[in-house]
Design brief:
The chain is built from 7 helices and 5 strands. The chain is of the alpha/beta class. It has a 5-stranded parallel beta sheet with strand order 2-3-4-1-5, sandwiched between helices.
């Protein structure tokens, strides 16, 4: 699988959305599932309750791309993990694109069954992080040029400054 991991606000969602949008554009006839781990868990539990696991598995088997955000939330949900593992194995064997996002390296997350943790770590792991001040300055400069805005250097510095600790958790 393709695994993105890093703190909130580092571009995991935008990157996955971009990949999925590209796949939709290039292969509009192919099925693509893009959902959160919570949505996946709820759908799986609902299928179990309704005795529709075969239908649930077949829907995922049809997908060419499976993208699951916030996969950390699958930790500690052992029954969901046991159902997800064979689906993931089938997707990998069928050479489907499986994209997962985590808040940190999946190897450091407790609560995953060993086989599933091994699958997560066997893919391409891509850490994400906040851009440096120089990169943020470049982004603001490029955007202001694109919008034909003349920004005072003090405004640029305000734009690239980190959020105060009191605001950061709310954003």
């Amino acid at each position: 699988p393709l695994v993105f991991y890093g703190p909130t606000g580092t571009g995991k969602t935008k990157t996955i959305e971009g990949i999925c949008q590209s796949k939709r554009t290039l292969e509009p006839q192919k099925t693509l599932y893009y959902l959160s781990a919570l949505e996946f868990s709820r759908a799986l539990v609902d299928a179990l309750r309704r005795d529709q696991m075969q239908l649930f598995r077949s829907l995922f088997a049809q997908a060419r791309v499976i993208a699951i955000e916030d996969a950390d939330l699958l930790a500690e949900k052992e029954s969901v993990q046991h159902e997800f593992l064979p689906m993931l194995d089938e997707a990998i064997l069928s050479q489907k694109l499986v994209i997962l996002s985590f808040s940190k390296n999946p190897a450091s997350i407790k609560g995953f069954i060993p086989d599933l943790a091994a699958r997560f770590s066997s893919g391409l792991l891509i850490p994400t992080s906040f851009p440096s001040p120089e990169t943020r300055r470049h982004i603001v400069s490029q955007l202001s040029q694109k919008l034909s805005l003349a920004l005072d250097p003090r405004v640029v510095e305000l734009c690239i400054a980190p959020l105060p600790p009191t605001l950061a958790p709310t954003c």
